[in-house]
Each structure stands twice: as structure tokens, then as C-alpha cells.
Specification:
This protein has 146 residues and is an alpha+beta fold. It has one domain. The chain is 29% helix and 18% strand. The chain has a 5-stranded mixed β-sheet, sandwiched between helices. The radius of gyration is 15 Å and the shape is globular.
Length: 146
């Protein structure tokens, strides 16, 4: 988890993404803000471990989920735990970050909680690809972040 030698490729891709004005506009539409902390995770990382890194920042983070074997990156916005969210049962021990993100695909924003949080937080995916050929859609985000 968060080992620079394992995440170097993902770090370079995110750095490139954050320097692209079109990508920054796209990310902003999904809750990203200038200076937002970035947490890197691998699919098999335990949720409790990743959320420990998220908690250290005390604010919303951009989580980069790196496949580790392909060039696929997923971007996720994670809020701070808050009493404003409905309190949900904590995730079972051993839940991976990939399992959490898979559950989220059924909802636009999902609340979740880990055992050491008193309150729930929310997570939602920031799509890397946005169709622009449908009426009413905004322009596509940069799709080549590699």
C-alpha cells in the first residue's frame, strides 16, 4: 500500500492528468479541488488500511485505484466521515478496496463506514471517460492520461 516503487507509473499519470486544464475542469465537476490530497491504492488493499491513510488528511481525498497489471486507473472521491450521512454498519474485516468500489457501481454515491470511524463517509467514482455524443452531455474529459 502506498509504496512508491509500486505506484510510480500511476503517480506520473496522475501528475500529468492534474496538469491538463481540461482534465482539471472535468475533475472539478466531480468534487476535486486544487490541493486535494491524493491517496494511491491497489485493488487488493484492505479498506481499513486505505481509510487509515484517508483519515490522516482530515479532509476529502482523491483516491487513485491502480490495477497494478494494466494501465487502468480509477479515480474516486472520498469524503470525510460526517454525522450528516446516515450511519451504516461498518464493512466486514478483510474487505478489499476493490470490493468497496464494486459495491459502489450500483449507486452514484454510496455511504460506507470502517470499524474505527464513528460516522459514515461517502464515495463516488470520477469517470475517466464521459460520452459527449449524447444530447445534454458535457465535452469528454481527456481520455489519454497514459
Amino acid at each position: 500500500m502506498n509504496m512508491p516503487e509500486l505506484n510510480m507509473r500511476a503517480m506520473h499519470r496522475v501528475e500529468k492528468l492534474l496538469h491538463c486544464p481540461e482534465a482539471r475542469t472535468h475533475l472539478t465537476a466531480y468534487g476535486w479541488m486544487e490541493g486535494m490530497p491524493v491517496v494511491f491504492a491497489q485493488r487488493t488493499d484492505p479498506v481499513d488500511e486505505v481509510m487509515g491513510f484517508v483519515s490522516v488528511h482530515g479532509r476529502a481525498v482523491l483516491m487513485v485505484l491502480d490495477d497494478g497489471q494494466t494501465d487502468d486507473l480509477q479515480l474516486w472521491h472520498i469524503t470525510v466521515p460526517s454525522p450528516l450521512f446516515p450511519k451504516v454498519p461498518h464493512l466486514p474485516a478483510g474487505t478489499t478496496i476493490s470490493e468497496l468500489c464494486s459495491r459502489q457501481h450500483t449507486e452514484k454515491m454510496m455511504t460506507f463506514r470502517v470499524a474505527f470511524w464513528s460516522h459514515s463517509a461517502a464515495i463516488h467514482e470520477i469517470p475517466c471517460f464521459v460520452r459527449n455524443d449524447w444530447p445534454g452531455q458535457v465535452a469528454a474529459s481527456p481520455t489519454d492520461i497514459g
